[in-house]
Design a protein that fits this description.
437 residues, mainly alpha, 20 helices, 79% helix, Gnt-I system high-affinity gluconate transporter, membrane, transport
Length: 437
Amino acid sequence: MTLFIIFLCIGLLVLLITWGKLNPFIAFLIVSIVAGITTGIPLSSIGKSLQKGVGDMLGSLVIVIALGAMLGKIVAESGAAQKIASVMMKIFGEKYIQWGLVCTGFIIGIPLFYNVGFVLMIPLIFSVVNQYKLPAVYIGLPMLASLSVAHGFLPPHPSPAALVAQFNADMGLTLVYGIIIAIPTIVIAGPIFSLTLKNIPSKPLETFQSKTLPKEQLPSTLNSFLTSLLPVILLASTTLLATFWKDNESLKSFGVFVADPSIVMLISVLVATFTLGIKMGTSMKTIMSIYTEAVKDVAMIVLIIGGAGALKQILMDGGVSNEIAVILKTLPLDPLILGWLVAAIIRVCLGSATVAGLTTAGIMAPLVAQSGVNPNLMVLSIGVGSLMFSHVNDPGFWLFKEYFNLSIKNTIKSWSMMESIVAVVGLVGVLILDAVI
């Protein structure tokens, strides 16, 4: 009965989103109510469970997601991302253009949401393609692989950040582990895999090539890099320094305060407001309007995360999660592999990496608590699984197809296979890291 309920929930979620074209947030609420009824939760208590689930999930995430969106928007609007891209291209030169794009995509991908980074980097990719007369997919896919990896692996992106909160993981350690796994994953799924894609015909549409800012209007190189990477610098440094602070209560308390993701993002946004805003001659009114638009861009992501929290709470209150954990524990699979597999299946069915990650988190939470598996690695395992085989039900699939003007067949051969390689290689990286630590 327990497995039937979970399959019913996932199946209904798939149908509502794909066939019914329903908004994922609304779909989550409907499925949560159905799950509550089938698990025997009193009707009078279902509403309370929904509210608790949404509140608990968003309570620790709204600040991080909203501030992360603001930082990404100011990095894009100020020209900092464009500056980083131009500097990286100068460093790597024509011979190693691909590697320059990969590094640029990864650096840009850390503070920016995937869709923002995609649209922002497309003009750079197309300008390189036109300037050096190179195959578009061969040049562009490695950069997009690095953007995708940053989106699926690294906090403060919504899904990894939500998983960190769900499993009580350490965001700094998760980030460090994520970067360690991300580097070989990007290399294999990007430059190496793209060697097989040189003959794919692609004529990027001119209408998708957006304008770039004049060089004199761009922030300095140091300003662009430091401001964009400040969240990473703060998280990584406080995590590493924590070992030296453990005997000093005052420094330890300060370190814990600064390392809190909400504080990290607040500091980063305040710094960016000055370095990429006021210092560049932008009025405070304009900066605040940029931040307002940024929050609008992620509003639906926040609601979807809240909806996933509601389903998680219903499954917990109905006792389903604990029963599933007991069943899953009897399977001859490592919990990290199991988390990856569940996320991959949901991803293929639903198309959304965020929904796949968050839904899997609700299923795996009791097992993580009982098995003693490293929660930081579970975050990464589910994160990489949630990127598995993007196809026609994923907006990212169509984004790539339309911008590069490809057929569906060639989009599957390039984009879908790249995402699958990311998922598989990422899992191998997680398992190797698990064996080492």
